[in-house]
Description:
By secondary structure, the chain is α/β, with parallel strands linked by helices. The protein is 28% helix and 22% strand. Pyridoxal-5'-phosphate binds at residues 68, 70-71, 89, 112, 205, 241-244, 335-339.
Amino acid sequence: MKSKIPVLTPKVSEWMTELMNNPCLLAKLIEEYGSPVNIHQTQPFIENAKKYQQVFWDLGLEHRIYFARKANKCTSFIEAAAQVNLGVDTASYNELKECLDAGMEADDLVVTAAIKTEKLIRLAIKTGVLIILDNSDECQIAQKVASELQISAKIGLRVSGFEYQGNRLYSRFGFDIRQVKNFLQENFGPTRAFNQLTYTGLHFHLNGYSTGARAAALNQCLLLSQELFELGFETSFIDIGGGFLMNYLQSKEEWEHFKVKLQSALKGEIEPITYQNDGLGYKLIEGAIHGDLSTYPYFNELYQEKFLVEILNTRFGNGSNVETARSLGIELRMEPGRSLLDQAGMTVARVNFRKKDLDGNWLIGLEMNMTQMQSSSADFLLDPFLIPMEETEEKVPVEVYFTGAYCLERDVLLKRRIPLMQLPQVGDLVVFVNTAGYMMHFFESEAHLFDLAANLFYIRNSPPEENYEFLEDKGALKDPSVSNYMLAKH
Ligand SMILES: *Cc1c(COP(=O)(O)O)cnc(C)c1O
């Protein structure tokens, strides 16, 4: 489509296209489960996991991959993780409980919660699950609980404050890497305050998406582990956390063009391309653009397994991270969330109304709200797909904003003005692809007492045209008396 305003064409997997080519089926799902509905597949998740595993196998590294559970609420991904021998990184009592109830082994789990309640710590220690501790107060609680239970607790320490490019990387989490040695020496061991805690390894999770920073952090942890070994503390693993980039978009040109056009719009050189000329992080000060785009970097060339390889192969004075980890016999661990969910889910909503606002912009009201597709960054920069229910005779291209159901002026689902081939009709569907990682679940709320979206799993039978099958995610069923799955065959 030729459009004056920039487009951002998403990468779309075959199963999504298959469903979008069947408007009737999607309409039936909305009828049955309400709008919006989240549709998933576990196969892409499994393939993404295998690509990470292959990297470690190829490099001959001991490894363990944990799926960061918080990135999506569906229990089915826990089952998929277990299928390919992935562990799960849990960040709350309920997340941990659910994995244990699903039959996962303690060795396949880790607790990295930012706030660890005594209840969570007790469950982890009782069941023998590794806890990554962030500060001395947490050690205190763990020590108390472990003493009561008369078992030793397996713990790792989260570290931060790595040196990178002449600065130290700030984080509100973890122990200052420079103090770990003293802290262990003073508090750990049979006659010390935390004698019920057994130190087993180091952990970090960095903000941002720099491979250089991650490589440096890993290297500094490897060096620290050598020093700790000399003091009698054995580091069996180093966990490098999550934040592995993924690539959402098809074209670098579109991505670069978008950024240029957004800046022009802010300067008033062209019509706004975002709602009320939102700069998405760019600011216009005295005619010049300042600041940076504060969205996720949706287009990337170095992503997923390539991103991991880069971190592992980075060289330092003591050799590459791979060589050092191998020679020290340290297991490397990672906790990807978003990047494992690449191509694993999409969100479908129904058009409720069309109207023109005071400025003459088309607003398309969707039966969903902003929390059901919300990025932690300034916007979700992927073009959605319009699925018309009926063929219309003449197609007049339009540009629209999608608005949501919350009574807030700011419930605008995408900040960008979206070009479409035709004006949506009431009852048409809009599909947002690749929303499984954070987008659909992380911020979802029940204001106005709206129901949360149903979570379906598309079971791909062959040939698909004859037999579509969708299973509702078990975790989404609030009433446990309902049979495990509701089945909708079409
Ligand atoms: C959020 C989080 C992750 C996952 O991060 P992604 O960006 O989804 O890969 C992993 N580990 C910890 C400790 C986290 O907080």
